[in-house]
Design goal:
By secondary structure, this protein is an alpha/beta fold. Helices cover 42% and strands 19% of the residues. It has 16 helices and 16 strands. A six-stranded mixed sheet has the order 11-13-12-14-15-16. β12, α11 and β13 form a beta-alpha-beta unit. It is globular and about 85 Å long. Keywords: Disulfide bond, Membrane, Redox-active center, Signal, Transmembrane, Transmembrane helix. This is Thioredoxin domain-containing protein. One of its GO terms (molecular function) is protein disulfide isomerase activity.
C-alpha cells in the first residue's frame, strides 16, 4: 500500500514537468516550420492553435480551384508574417478529409480562413493577395485603441491602417470612452484617440469642436462626425451605423459584411451601375442614407450581377431603377405605388418609397427560386451541392442506358467529384460555398 502511495506521489510531482516537456516539444516542432505554412491534421490542430498567440488557418479542400490559387499567396505571406515583432503564423488543414475539425468550426465552403487569437477563432473576411493579407492581419496584433499624440502620429496611423477597414478617431476623447467597443468591433474597424493635434488637423478632418468622434471610409471617400452625447448607448449606435458606408455596391464581399448588420437593406437595382444616370442616382441615395441611418443602402447593376437581380423578380423587361427593402435573407418588400424610379425628381421618389415602407404600404415577397440555390450553397457548401448534382447526373445516365424510367429511391452514393463546375456553381446568384478570391 505504501509503495502505491509513493508511486502516485511521484507521478503527481513529476506530472507538471512531463506536461511542460511535451508542450516545449510541440513548440519546437512548430518552430522548425516558422515562416512556412504549417500542414495540420486532427492530431496536432488543437496543439497548434494553443501554442501560437495568432495563427491564420486555411480550411481547404484539395479539389477546390480557389484553394489552389490561394495557396501560393499564403506561402508568400507566411514568410513576412513570421518576421513581425508580434509574429503571425499561417497553417492549413484539409477540412474535407478531417471533417471533425471542419464541423467543429462550422466550415461550409472552401477556402474558409479563420484567425485564432489566443485560441479564439474569428472568420477572416479580408483580402487574399499576399501583400494586402499581411497589412490586413497586422490589425489583429495592433492595440485595441491606438493613442496618438501628434499630427504626424495621426497621419502615420491612418496610412498604416490602409483602406480595408473603416477608421474611427476620437479627438479629445479618453480611450476608455471607446475601448469597450474597440474590443467588440475589432475585426471590423480601426480605433484610435488623438490626445494632441493642431488646428490644421481639425480643418483637415472637418470638425470644429471637441470631443468629436470621426468615422472615415477610405475606400468610399466618406466621413461622418459624432459630437455626442458620449454615453455608451449613443456611442455604440453611432459606431454600428458607421461600420458600413452610406451606400455600397453589392458584391460577394459586401454580402458577407451585410450578414453582420441587423438593419433592413434598401436595395436599388440599376441597369448599369457604371453609367452616368446610375451614378447620379447613387448620389441621391447617399443623401437619403445620411438621413435614414436605421437602414443600409445598397445598389446593384443588372449588367454587373444579373443573377442576383433576378432573385428579386427583375428581368431584362423590368423597368429600372427599382427599389425594394430586403431582410438580408429570403424575404423582401415592395412598396405600393413605387415599383420603379422615374428620371424626374428622383430624390422625392426615394423619400416617398422610404415613407411608404415605414407606413406599412408594402407587399411581402420571397426571393425567387433561382436564388434558393444560393442559400443552399451558403448553408451546406458548394462541395455538397456538387456531389448531389454529380450523383443525380450519374443515375440519370445509368437509367438512360438501361432504357428504364428514373424512379424515386434509385439514387446511389458516389465518390467526391473533381473540381469540375456544375451549372449551379456557374450561376451563383446570391452566395457561394466555394469562396471566391478577393481582389483588393
Amino acid at each position: 500500500m505504501s509503495f502505491l502511495f509513493i508511486f502516485l506521489l511521484l507521478v503527481l510531482v513529476s506530472w507538471p514537468f512531463i506536461t511542460e516537456a511535451e508542450t516545449e516539444q510541440q513548440k519546437q516542432q512548430f518552430a522548425v516550420e516558422s515562416g512556412k505554412v504549417l500542414e495540420l491534421d486532427e492530431s496536432n490542430f488543437d496543439a497548434a492553435i494553443s501554442n501560437f498567440d495568432y495563427i491564420l488557418v486555411d480550411f481547404y479542400a484539395p479539389w477546390c480551384g480557389h484553394c489552389k490559387r490561394l495557396a501560393p499567396q499564403l506561402d508568400k505571406a507566411a514568410l513576412i508574417l513570421a518576421d513581425l515583432k508580434q509574429p503571425i503564423s499561417i497553417a492549413k488543414i484539409d477540412a474535407d478529409k478531417y471533417k471533425r475539425v471542419g464541423s467543429k468550426y462550422g466550415i461550409d465552403g472552401y477556402p474558409t480562413l479563420k484567425i485564432f487569437m489566443h485560441g479564439v477563432p474569428t472568420e477572416y473576411y479580408g483580402p487574399r493577395k499576399a501583400d494586402l493579407l499581411v497589412r490586413f492581419l497586422k490589425k489583429f496584433v495592433a492595440p485595441d485603441v491606438a493613442v496618438l499624440n501628434s499630427d504626424s502620429a495621426i497621419s502615420e496611423f491612418v496610412e498604416a491602417a490602409g483602406t480595408s477597414f473603416p477608421i474611427f478617431i476620437g479627438f479629445g476623447l479618453n480611450e476608455s470612452a471607446i475601448s469597450h467597443f474597440a474590443v467588440k468591433y475589432k475585426k471590423r474597424a480601426w480605433f484610435s484617440v488623438a490626445k494632441d493635434f493642431s488646428d490644421k488637423t481639425m480643418e483637415f478632418y472637418d470638425f470644429d469642436k471637441v470631443p468629436a468622434l470621426v468615422a472615415r471610409h477610405p475606400n468610399y471617400d466618406e466621413q461622418s462626425i459624432f459630437y455626442g452625447p458620449f454615453e455608451e448607448k449613443f456611442v455604440e449606435d453611432y459606431i454600428k451605423q458607421s461600420l458600413l458606408p452610406l451606400t455600397l455596391p453589392i458584391t460577394e464581399e459586401t454580402l458577407r459584411l451585410l450578414k453582420d448588420d441587423e438593419r433592413k437593406v434598401i436595395l436599388t437595382i440599376l441597369e448599369d451601375e457604371s453609367d452616368d444616370r446610375s451614378k447620379k442616382l447613387v448620389k441621391l441615395l447617399k443623401a437619403a442614407a445620411s438621413a435614414n441611418r436605421d437602414f443600409v443602402f445598397v445598389f446593384v447593376g443588372f449588367k454587373q450581377w444579373q443573377g442576383f437581380a433576378e432573385s428579386f423578380d427583375v428581368s431584362k423587361k423590368t423597368e429600372l431603377p427599382k427599389m425594394v427593402v430586403w431582410d438580408g435573407d429570403e424575404e423582401y418588400f415592395s412598396v405600393v405605388g413605387s415599383d420603379s424610379i422615374e428620371d424626374e425628381d428622383q430624390g422625392s421618389q426615394i423619400t416617398h418609397f422610404i415613407q411608404g415602407y415605414k407606413d406599412g404600404n408594402i407587399i411581402q415577397k420571397r426571393i425567387s427560386s433561382g436564388s434558393f440555390m444560393g442559400f443552399i450553397n451558403s448553408m451546406i457548401g458548394m462541395g455538397t451541392v456538387t456531389i448531389i448534382v454529380f450523383v443525380v447526373a450519374v443515375v440519370m445516365i445509368i437509367q438512360s442506358l438501361k432504357g428504364e424510367p428514373l424512379t424515386v429511391g434509385t439514387r446511389d452514393k458516389g465518390d467526391h467529384p473533381s473540381s469540375s463546375t456544375s451549372q449551379a456553381e456557374a450561376r451563383q446568384p446570391l452566395r457561394t460555398g466555394e469562396k471566391q478570391d478577393k481582389e483588393d
